[in-house]
Each structure stands twice: as structure tokens, then as C-alpha cells.
Amino acid sequence: MTKFKGIAASDGIAIASAFRLTEPDLSFNKETIKDSDAEIARLNQAIEVSKQELRTIQQRTLKDLGRHEAEVFKAHIAILSDPELLKRIKTMIETRHVNAEYALKNVSDSYIQIFNSMTDNDYLKQRSTDIKDVMKRVLSHLLGVPLSDPALIDHQVIIIAHDLTPSDTAQFVPNYVKGIVSDMGGRTSHSAIMSRTMEIPAVVGFQGSLADIKDGDPVIVDGLTGNVIVKPTADERQAYHEKQRQYQQRNEQLGAFRNAATTSSDGKHPIIAANIGTLDDLQAAIDNGAEGIGLFRTEFLYMDSDKLPSEEAQFNVYKTVVQKMAGKPVIFRTADIGGDKDLPYLHTPHEANPFLGYRAIRMSLDQPDVFRTQLRALIRASAFGNLSIMFPMIATVTEFKHAKRIFEDERTKLVAKDIPVGNIKLGIMVEVPAAALLADQFANVVDFMSIGTNDLIQYVMAADRGNRRISYLYQPYNPAVLRLIKSVIDACHDNGTPAYMCGEMAGDQKAIPILVGMGLNEFSMSATSILKSRALIKELDSREMVTLANKTVSLASTSQQVLKYVHQALEKP
Ligand code: PEP
Ligand code: MG
């Protein structure tokens, strides 16, 4: 047995065998071959096995995720059946007597180069990514190096990975992926947020060496404490099965809070809403008793597609969400593309500091056609429910006014065409310290503010939210962060503007008492945190929490002191 530590990123206990999701070594040498027929037969064999594998993945994806997701594998099979491409590879083997690996790479690279040079054809650019993927698969069979492909998983596993992108995580089928361990990432990285939404227990920022976990090793992931146990003893297995049972039992008890109002012990009613990224997440939000959607991360719609989603496609999703929420408020955030949510088909140049770069509202204002399409879809959907819009990463009042002008322009045009529109509130996310410091000015021009602590903390502390080595600095309870949050909430209230929070801190059980004391109006969180947060708030007296909040911002100088005050405030006399 070996025990490791990491950051607890998604609640729950998982026990299954390890599945390493690592980049394989596909390096090879150029070789001269004598028997080109035998070399071509080897290539044919690798192509055939790849096709069979792709057919299996296509069928499984179709069954588990749907037709749209399965299309990509159909395209991959088509590439492997393309006579022109195959002929060129085989001719190269025959005429230049090179090994199949070299010919395959050489020919496919030339295709990729041609497609990439067609700067104005997104469709062909996407085909170059497909060719790259397919060739990697064939190469792996030629070299006998297995690819660790999440789409091939057909039994219960714990994913072991160095890093996971949101699109990697989106491919996981929760029936098979029972837990996640990753080297990189903090609690607020988007993959961690997604694992919470998908209810997959996860530990990120792993502090051991991933090389110590072999494929198939039995692993326990404790997403409550951040412990990872490799090859557990029989006693440990038993202890964790018991912990798993207790966790499930507690969840069942929390079910009693599903349809209850959120009420503190002295009768205050903050709203608990859910953060979602896709239509698939909506049901969990409803099932967990969300009183609204405080953050719809619309960029996932863009990431789920190989081209910009049309106005109609967006309209249908937005309309469905507000209709299903049946009059409860839904806040859509306009696309926050960039940072760790790159869109390959936009071909944005690489940046040294993507989190400080061309992202979110900066990109929207720079590409007004894309922005206007999204706004039209949202404005049209507003006729079907209670819809608000907020802009991400706002740094200046000018940016907000600019975005608002574009919004009003689109609304006026739709109204002129007699298209029904609802009463839409406009707000901002407070993620940039400059916006937080100027909250009193913003409060005069916005309908609401929603504090995005995931980003705000990283900018206040100058600590990348996904970087394990400095994760100790990513401190939600640091008094500097708390003072800034309090000043935003106070500025809102001085102006009669509601203050919301949609960063992960809103669902953090240690932060909630402080935020109740600060008078936060809405807590928007992962659906799985709703019931326990509602249960916690029921126990809190908001007047005592005001004292706690004031203590944390005036007396504490460290996170530890803040946590001590929280602990004291929650202790029953
Ligand atoms: C935030 O920054 O707090 C937030 C909610 O946005 P995201 O996590 O998508 O960056
Ligand atoms: Mg953010």
C-alpha cells in the first residue's frame, strides 16, 4: 500500500483500477527496408486494427454520448479509407524503400501542412486535426505502443493523468470513470469544476509521482480529504467501503432539503443557485433543488462544436434552459473563451499569459459579429423565461458600456422586427481586481454583480489557479481576498444593487458562514454542493455571522486565523 496526498477537488470516494491517460512515446527512426511488400502488409494490418478500434469507439460513443459526438470517429474511419492518401503512403514505401512509420508521418504531415495553410477554411483546418489524430493511432499500432484513449474505456476505472483539459473530461462516461487523479490543476480549474458537476470524485495537484501508479493497480480516491491510496490493504478497502457508504447515506439524508427554501435560523433568505455548462447539467441542478441558475458557462456550447454555433443552435439551448427553469432566474454569461478554454477552430495565436490575455469580453468586443450572434440568441430566448446576461472579465466601466451598447442595438433591431423579447437584466462578473475596486462606480450602471472568485483570487494573489506548485497561495480565506469581496458586496448594497457570487467559493462550507455575514444575496455553485449548503445555512444565525465576517476582515492577518474564527463561530455552545 502507498498513500499519497493531493488537493480534494470533487467530493466522494471511488475504488477501482488505475487507467493511465498519458502521452505515449511514438518516436521512431527512418529506416531503409528491403521488402516493401512486407512493409505495406504491416501498414495494412495497422490500418485495419485502427479501423476496427474506431468502429468500436464510434458505437460506444453513439450509445453513451450521442450521434453528434460519434460523428468525429466516422470522419476518422473515412480518412483511413481514403484511396488517395493510402496510395501516396504506399508509393513512398515502394519507391523510396522507407519504413511504414516514416512514410505515414511524411505523407500525413504534408496533408496537415496544406490544410493548415488554408487560413480561411475552418472545415479543412479541422480535417488537419482529424488526420493528426488518426495517424497517431495507426503509428501506435505500427510501433506496438498502446494509446491510452478515454473513449476505449469499457470498465470501471480511476483516471490517472498529468493534466486534463475540459474537453478530455467531457469525454468521460461516469458509468466507467469512477475517479480522477491528476498532477496539475487546482480546485477551481475547469476540469475540477466539471468533475464535480459529473459527480466524479477527484484529487488534483497530486503530490506523488504518477509513475508510481501502474495501469490496473487498485486505487482509492478520497475526494473529501485529497488522499489517494494505491494497492490498498484489505483493511483499508473495508474502511473506505464504509466511508463510501456513510457518504451515500449523508447524501440521502440531504435529500430532505431538495424542495425546502433556503432560510437561516433567524429567517434570512439568500438564494442558492447552480452553475451549469451544458444542457446535460441542467437536470442535476433541478434535481438538487436549485432556485435558479447563477452561471451558465455558455462557452461550453462553443467548445462542444467544431465551428462557431449558429444563432439558431444557441437560441434553442437558451430557450430550453429558461423554459425548464420555469420562471426561476437564469443568468447566462456571454462566452468566456480563452484562458484554459481554447477553441482550436478560432486559431487564436499562442500567448505567453493566456489568463491575462485575449479572452472573454476582450475577445467578444474584438469580434463583434460572434458577440452579436450570441446576444441575438439570448435576447430572443428571453421571451420564454426569466433571463439575465452577464459579461465575463470586465475590467473597466468603458468595457461594460461598450458591451451594453451592442446589446441594446441588437435588442432594438429585434423589437423593430416584432420579435418578442423579455425584460433582461444586465450584469458583470467581478473577476478582475480593478472592477472590484471600482464596484461603487459599476453599481450605478449595472443591474447586478456576480463575484467570480475563481479568477478574482488568482489575480489578487497573483497565483495561477491551475498551478500546483503555488497552490498554497491560492487562498480563498486570505483576509485580503475577504476584504475585497466585502467591499464589493457593501458597494452593491449601498446602491441597492444585488450582489451574487458564482465562483466555487460560494459553495465552500467554510466560506459560506462569512459570506452569509457579509449579506451575499445569491450563492451559485456546483449542483452537488446545493443541498449541504442549504443544510448549513439553516444552522446559521446571520447576526452572529455578521460579527464573524467583521472579525475576519478586521482582525485576521492570515487564512489560518480566518479559519479559526469560522470554526469558533460554528461551535455549538
Ligand atoms: C470565476 O472566475 O469565478 C468563474 C465563475 O468563472 P470561471 O470559473 O468559468 O472562470
Ligand atoms: Mg472566471
From TrEMBL:
Sections of the chain in a coiled coil: 33-60
Function: General (non sugar-specific) component of the phosphoenolpyruvate-dependent sugar phosphotransferase system (sugar PTS). This major carbohydrate active-transport system catalyzes the phosphorylation of incoming sugar substrates concomitantly with their translocation across the cell membrane. Enzyme I transfers the phosphoryl group from phosphoenolpyruvate (PEP) to the phosphoryl carrier protein (HPr).
EC number(s) given by UniProt: 2.7.3.9
Positions of Mg(2+) binding: 431, 455
Family membership noted in the UniProt record: Belongs to the PEP-utilizing enzyme family.
Spans traversing the lipid bilayer: none
Domain annotation Phosphotransferase system enzyme I N-terminal: ranges: 5-127
Main location: cytoplasm
Domain PEP-utilising enzyme C-terminal, first and last residues per copy: 252-541
GO CC terms of this entry: cytoplasm
Name this polypeptide is given: Phosphoenolpyruvate-protein phosphotransferase
Binding site for phosphoenolpyruvate: 297, 333, 454-455, 465
Entry's localization field: Cytoplasm
Catalyzed chemical reaction(s): L-histidyl-[protein] + phosphoenolpyruvate = N(pros)-phospho-L-histidyl-[protein] + pyruvate
GO biological process: phosphoenolpyruvate-dependent sugar phosphotransferase system
Source organism, top-level taxon: Bacteria
